[in-house]
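Appendix B, record 7
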Amino acid sequence: MIRFASLTVPMLLAACSETPLPNTAASNETATAEAVVNESEGAAENMAVPADATAPLLNLAPEALSLVDPQSGRARQLAFGTAREMTVTGATAALGKPSDTGRNGECGEGAMEFVEFGGLTLWFQQDKFVGWFLEDATPKLTTATGAGIGSTRKEVADALEISDVTDSSLGREFTTDGGDFSGLLDGAGDSAKVTALWSGQACIFR
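Structure tokens (predicted):
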């Protein structure tokens, strides 16, 4: 068993910076408010706060997870395409040990493995990080702009360019104009609340 608890924030962020990580969402991130996670102390305000003050903070981002050093505010991304081991190590350092792991052979994109941290599910193919899915407020996670479970449609639209997916079989679905970030709402109108968020290849059955 790999013991993640022994990692320190400097070691983790150094590991992220030493290995060039693919970031296929660079152009899309520039077009959205999510880009504020780059080297920003302000992004830490919307992070999940761990019990250990030295642990990294975690934010959701289009096609990535963002880790922030709580002491310096410097951010590093675990972009889609990052090795599973590094991705799980980073999430574990911020959120604690996974609550579940497994494999689903019936996903539309092919067989996928998953690692769960409460309501956050990370998806992997061929040992590469390919998607995340959030459907619960525990742990309390948001994007850098504060969008999370329980946010209203207006709050999300004020920070991101979104539009409704009119033909969705999942319910009231919305997506960013670039298509790199999606979610579900519990009703219609600006006051409808977010019930799920995801990015990348999430094993969702339509």
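Remarks on this record: DSSP finds four helices and eleven strands in the chain. The longest strand covers residues 128-134.
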